[in-house]
Amino acid sequence: MTRLSVNINKIATLRNARGGDIPNVVKVALDCESFGADGITVHPRPDERHIRHKDVYDLRPLLHTEFNIEGYPAPEFIDLVLKVKPHQVTLVPDSPGQITSNAGWDTKSNFDFLNEVLDKFNNAGIRTSVFVSTETEMIEYAAKAGADRVELYTEPYAKAYPQNREAAVAPFVEAAKVVRSLGLGLNAGHDLSLANLNYFYQNIPWLDEVSIGHALISDALYLGLERTIQEYKNCLR
Ligand code: PXP
């Protein structure tokens, strides 16, 4: 089964635009779960422009499904994750002001750093995932550094999909085979949508998890959150 983890950062962005508590991030997360999401993902950034540290603490005891915290492992992020102990932490190489993640890790150049950080999370019993491109060497170094899983950065797939979906998915299928041969778990995310998700899944049915935010929350404006989540789940069958 491929799990759907809903990234709720956009809900926090909407709330923060007015400074109050509408929409309520915890309520939306719990509703996503009751509508069928298998997990909730948050990406707290240092400037707290969407998910705040307080949200992460508020969510932890209330969620019933898998909690995934993603972000750049700066000292305060590491501290937050070790305190909150989510089911999974996903390491992303983005700088503080970045609009969204736009690349996987260079796991070779950052090997020592990743190895040290992954050790901390592994010792705390938190499953680890490292955001990477489809390059074999990057996946191999993620494994050597101690990751339990990798998350494949799917923006290149999503961009190329409309022109030629076979060509778009091919490097991901190859990468997914490398991931499997190394005994790692496999996640994927970025720009996955109702248009491109099912084809990705059909080609890589051993995917453990997808994490989806932007397109899913945008679809919910038209379809409503419940139906949207059900439609994304249907793409994973
Ligand atoms: N995975 C990672 C590592 C991300 O940084 C993001 C965006 O926050 C996503 C998945 C979800 O991407 P999208 O919002 O395009 O679905």
Topology summary:
Layout: E1 3-7, H1 9-18, H2 25-34, E2 39-42, H3 53-59, E3 66-71, H4 75-84, E4 88-91, H5 111-123, E5 127-132, H6 136-145, E6 149-153, H7 155-160, H8 165-181, E7 185-189, H9 197-203, E8 209-212, H10 214-223, H11 225-234
Parallel strand pairs: 1-2, 1-8, 2-3, 3-4, 4-5, 5-6, 6-7, 7-8
Helix pairs in contact: 5-6, 10-11
The protein binds pyridoxine-5'-phosphate (PXP).
Subcellular location: Cytoplasm
Binding site for 1-deoxy-D-xylulose 5-phosphate: 45, 50, 100
Catalytic activity: 3-amino-2-oxopropyl phosphate + 1-deoxy-D-xylulose 5-phosphate = pyridoxine 5'-phosphate + phosphate + 2 H2O + H(+)
Descriptors for this entry?
about 240 residues, alpha/beta, TIM Barrel, 8-stranded parallel β-barrel, 11 helices, about 45% helix, globular, binds pyridoxine-5'-phosphate
